[in-house]
Records
---
Amino acid sequence: MRAVALSMPLVIPKRRIYKKTKGNYTYYTIYIPQDFNDLIPIPAFITIIIGNETLKLGVRRPFKVGREKYAIILSKELASIWERLIKESIEVTLVLEPISSQ
């Protein structure tokens, strides 16, 4: 059973972006460590911080991968940025801000 998510942003440093393929469909994803499962706001406003650059991706719904992990699918329109980060093995900071229920 999930506990209530925090009402403040959840900041998760040192995350990697992964490229996945399912049939002819390619997508980019970022996994959330299992330790944060009870704190993940669903839905959440997603922001990715790369060094001094901030990318606001908008509202996403983290989803379960397997039994215990959560992940977020990243915007395909930013594929060139994700490819560069993957190629250069750059880690990013993931920020999940809760969406108000009102």
Note: Helices lie at 79-87.
---
Amino acid sequence: MNLKDKLILAIDFDGTVVDDAYPKIGKPKLFAIETLKKLQSDGHRLILWTYRSGKYLDEAVEFCKSKGIEFYAINSSFPEEKFDEATKSRKIHADLFIDDRNIGGFIGWGEVYQKIADPNASPINLPKKKKSLFSFLRKNR
């Protein structure tokens, strides 16, 4: 996989990495830890993207660290980003969002990895590099 194939993946925690037991931490979902570690070792950037905050967020981060998962950022697009609700949106930048609340429900970690590792073998539409507005206008003449 080359640099242009690396993705930024926003990963939900409760119901996706672990069974939903909020505010407690549920049992890890089948293949969740192994898949996240493999995605990380493949060079993808993982962002923990969760409703959790405060001590409950700290517990989720520590749980993941104890399993060998280090996130590039937590509830932000990049590590240094500071949230200021007066000037910024809570929406983060990611190529794909992995969440149990997707339309159709969560597909499972085995299928998540297969779709990311070999997008030609699955119907997932991985993001394309964005083009400028002008290229879009030229295309639709």
Note: The domain at 3-139 is CATH 3.40.50.1000 (Rossmann fold).
---
Amino acid sequence: MWQSIVCGIGFLTILPGGRTMLFDARRTVSFFPVCGLLIGTLLVMVDVAAASFWQRPAAAVIDVVALAVISGALHLDGLADTADGLYGRRTLQRALEIMKDSRIGSIGTVAVACCLAVKWAGISGLHADRLVWLLLVPAFARGAVLFGIRTLPYGRPEGGTGHVFFQQPLRMLDFWGLAVLSGLAFLCTGWQALWIVGGFAFLAFSVLLYYRRKINCITGDMLGALIEIEEAGLFLLLSALNTSN
């Protein structure tokens, strides 16, 4: 178990992990939600520290920066590449070529800017259960990767980022981490947990359906984009819930 968590941390963050050691890919993926909880714990610590010095909007900026730093901006890079590659009417091969290009285009730049802005707006608007949402949202976002791997084939037969996770098909039992997250959400927030669970499912379904209709496959960049969209969307949704209350 510990080895799977360490490997997951190595893939999802810049923290020391076991990316180069032998590991069970399917088991590691099943622990992604747990790794997300660790990321959320770090985010809570950053937010508590930032809130002791700055007002909520400024603290939210620190939180957004912290999320980018913890992940090494890896998922933001995936979002940029995905936006550049899937924009417009492009063939599968052309889209994959663009996503593989290390240079960022104008569409990718706009996508990253919008994502960061939405995260800031969402985190700034969190009031009730703020620390609970800061803990859970990163975990649910990483859990979305399981659905991406389960529902779409990998788009680069020659290999690439994330290829190792597609070599063994996921079983339903591998989704236990999301069940734990849902239970934790209900335990901490009661019926309001329906919003994060429902929002998570809606965003994952929508993004993966879009991927299927565009190129009918998925890559490591697209998984990273899925994580970023989940985080931004959930923070914004939960801030709206706080406002309505």
Note: The two ends are 40 Å apart (CA to CA).
---
Amino acid sequence: MLPELVYGFYRKGLGFTGYLVIDSTIEGKSCGGIRESQSVTLDEVKKLARNMTLKYGFLRIPMGGAKAGLRINDTLSREKRKPIIAEFGRTLSRFIKNGYFIPGTDMGTSEEDVTWLMNAAKEQRNGYVNIESGHAPEYTGWTMVNSARQAIKLENAAVAIQGFGKIGSSAARIFSEDRAKIVAVSTCKGAIHNPRGLDTDRLIDLRNKCGDDLVNAYHECRRVPRDHLLELPVDILLPCAGSYLINSTNAHKIKAKVICPGANIPLTDQAEQILFKRGIICIPDFVSNSGAVLGNYVANYASRTKIKEIIDEEFSRAVYELLKISKERNTYPKGLAMQIAIRRFYEIKKNEGKLQRLLLRGIRLALPDAYQKIILKPVASHMFRRLLKRAFS
């Protein structure tokens, strides 16, 4: 399966390189975030776009996978970034205007950045699927904790978090609420460790005040080299930083029993194979961090409470079955999950996505706005739950 579109360009005057990869489409549409980094590569964007296809396929959501990449200096000010993002939007406008590419946030980009891009592309977001609801980190935290719960008991489990940004801090709060113990966190400024546990509320407060310097502002701990966090004797490791940070050079040093990614493609394929042979359970990243995709898609039709219910029940059951079958077949979970996701994607592309959209479109056309709110959400929510229940049929 090759990408449908691979597009790259360089703007010498503004000093940036841009990439867009449309890995797949359903009814001519694809979704994916914009990754901004001074080291992002075309190969990385291709793999991230494929990950989006796998997420949508695993969850049976009728949408294709895509990703954009913007290689610029990470230290640029807001004022200097704005014209670059605007030019990126103008260049991609022909892909955005017809819904071929529906952009969202990713590592290095914010909602404001996406708004700048859409404005430059002269496109309004109010006709598109809601891929940004403001609750994305929370939704991701919910799927992470429910994924980990299928592999290990969470109460008093020692958790290390690589990358204490939006996703890492949200996961810390949610794991703590489930009585897990956050013992180590890292940022680009370093890492801290306390085997007795770190105060999650204080960590989040310091992140809001100090950003990445929170690791220097928190005192009841020992400071460790950033890379050493991966080697700590913990029960659960949450990689929530960049791509490929767990690889063949450090996979043999990891002591965690379960790895549950919040980041996209944080492990190389070689690392996953090494960890599988060592008996360490690696939840596939496109499964464990799929909460934002799942939650933001269903948010058009369901309340936040209903979304949590779907994740707690149907999603958790799907992950349980994935790990169960993986153990029975003695195969690593990611390989199995990829087979399932690709199969479902083609099933949806063939018929299911069209049927879902036709039904929802019919309800919108047939009913006044007041009744749509009463009828549309429960119908769509029920449809989505039925699709997840069929996950392993």
Note: The radius of gyration is 21 Å.
